[in-house]
Amino acid sequence: MIKLGEINTLEILRESEHGVYLIDDEDNQVLLPNRYVPESFMIWDKLDVFVYLDNEQRPVATTDMPYIKINEFALLRCNQVTDYGAFLDWGLVKELFCPFSEQAFKMKQGGWYLVYCYLDEKTDRLVASSKTNRFLDNNELTISEFEEVDLIVSHPSDIGVNVIVNKKHIGLIYKDSIFRDLSVGDKLKGIVKKIRPGNKLDITLGQVGYRNIEPNADRIMKALQDDNGFLNLTDKSSPEAIKDALQMSKKNFKKAVGTLYKKRLIEIKSDGIYLVE
């Protein structure tokens, strides 16, 4: 079956004046227009193509790979706004449509928006929605505490930053756990710090508890090596200075320094930390 919004591996069946027709193992066919046809090919060669609907609402294939596929999230630029809705750049000739009803906030030309791509059952076409939370569900979690997860930064709140977790759930990183600049659409790794009542997810960008010591120790060692074996930081340094230098909290800094000191990898002096040669 040829699937809209996905990468399909199809075979070249025959040529036509408009391009070549591709076929799947169920004898379904789709046109690959001339502009995407390889310079040299043979019948029955296999091609990886993305399939969507053209302006005539007919399935069409392209060898261009979009920035977003069906059931995915991505940060896309709004190319234009019309009386019908917004049209987003997703890397293909035909733009991705986002109806006004699917805009969390009214989109503007040139703006960047985190959206979800899905198949509209009424029109059978791929559309975008910036109302991303409605495509996330925490009722049945597929993750557990202390598990590493994939994150997409969604939107800020008064107490932190909301994130999409494993493309399925919504989580929150509290302000006091953020030690780097985060922007909407950023993709990064995180840890499930805690699952609170109601399946609310507390996410951290570092390991939790004792799990946090070794990665932070490695970060300090790398900083020492990059700075000729010396860091002008001590337990009396301000949290801000530690955050700026190492992107970690003062509490985690002290734990990591303690670990390195016990291993005799560093010396602690009044003016800072020295790498043991």
From TrEMBL:
Domain Conserved virulence factor B first S1 span(s) in chain numbering: 4-63
Family annotation (Gene3D superfamilies): Nucleic acid-binding proteins, Winged helix-like DNA-binding domain superfamily/Winged helix DNA-binding domain
Signal peptide per UniProt: none
Superkingdom, taxonomy of origin: Bacteria
Any one Pfam family match given in the protein's UniProt record, by short name: WHD_CvfB
InterPro entries for this protein: CvfB_fam, CvfB_S1_st, CvfB_WH, NA-bd_OB-fold, WH-like_DNA-bd_sf
Conserved virulence factor B-like winged helix domain: residues covered: 218-275
Family stated for the protein in its record: Belongs to the CvfB family.
This protein's name: S1 motif domain-containing protein
Organism of derivation: Algibacter pectinivorans
